[in-house]
C-alpha cells in the first residue's frame, strides 16, 4: 500500500511541477480519488486534459472530481467497480472520450447525453440492458459507442438512422 501511495504522490508531483496535461493514476490501488489531490492540484486542474484512473478499485467519484477537472477531453475509468456517474459529469463540456469499460454499470449513464462534444463512449463489459439509441443520435459529434459484452435487449433497439458506430 505504501508503494501505491508513493507512486500516486510521484505522478501528481510530476504533473504539477512540469505543467503536464495528462494525469495517469492507473493501477494505483485507489478506491476513490484522493481528496488531498484537489488541494495539491488546484493550480493546474484547469490545464489537465486527460485523466487515466483505469484498473483501480474505484467504487464512485464525487461531483467535485468533475467540477474540478472541467477541461477534461479524455477520461479513462476502465476496470473499476463504478455503478453510476454523478450528475456533475455533464459539466465536462470539452469531453471527447470516456472509457467506462469493465465496471458494474447497470443503467446507461444518461447524464452523458448532455455532453455534446462526446465522440467516443466505451461501456464494454458492464451490465447494461437498455440503450437510449434515439437520444444518443442527438449528440452531434458522436462517432462510436461500444456496448460489447453487455446483456442488451436487442429487440428494443431502434437502429434506423443512427449516424455513429454502435458496437454490440
UniProtKB/TrEMBL annotation:
Its keywords, alphabetically, are: Leucine-rich repeat, Repeat
InterPro entries for this protein: Leu-rich_rpt (IPR001611), LRR_dom_sf (IPR032675), SLRP (IPR050333)
Note the PROSITE patterns from the entry.
LRR
Name of one Pfam family that matches: LRR_8
Q: Which GO terms describe its cellular component?
A: extracellular space
Q: Which PANTHER family match?
A: AGAP008170-PA, NEPHROCAN
Q: What is this protein called?
A: Leucine-rich repeat-containing protein 20
